[in-house]
Amino acid sequence: MDDLVPVIGIISVFGSIILFVSTLTNYSLKKRLIEKDMVNPETANLFSKQDSKHSALKWGLIVLFGGLGLIIIDAMGLDGDDAMPYGIEAVCIAVGFLIYYAMMKKEMND
To answer: CA 61 to CA 98: how far, in whole Å?
Structure first.
């Protein structure tokens, strides 16, 4: 297990860098397409609304429920050797996603 820690760390660092660069390049590509009028107005509106309108809410709920899962794990005194902490964390994050989904579905129906 101790041999995997450096490998996981390296993968995490490079994965984060790739994700960051990919996000920046996608944003700049969308921006250039909109500026050069290479997309129709409906698509341009879709780009701008979809990316920024509820992104903060989504990630706020995910982080909130992820933190809640960690608090529950700590309060229960569970070790990292068991599978239970991973299950609790996954369920808490899933609840955050489901709440976000319900909120967006309700907004679409209104």
So the answer is: 10
